[in-house]
Amino acid sequence: EVQLVESGGGLVQPGRSLRVSCAASGFTFDDYAMHWVRQGPGKGLEWVSGISWNNGHIAYADSVKGRFTISRDNAKNSLYLQMNSLRGEDTGLYYCAKGGTGLLRPFDYWGQGTPVTVSS
Amino acid sequence: EIVMTQSPVTLSVSPGERATLSCRASQSVRSNLAWYQQKPGQAPRLLIYDASTRATGIPARFSGSGSGTEFTLTISSLQSEDFAVYYCQQYNNWLYTFGQGTKLEIK
Question: Which residues 4-63 of chain B have a CB within 8 Å of chain A?
Answer without folding.
Answer: 32, 34, 36, 38, 43-46, 49, 55-56
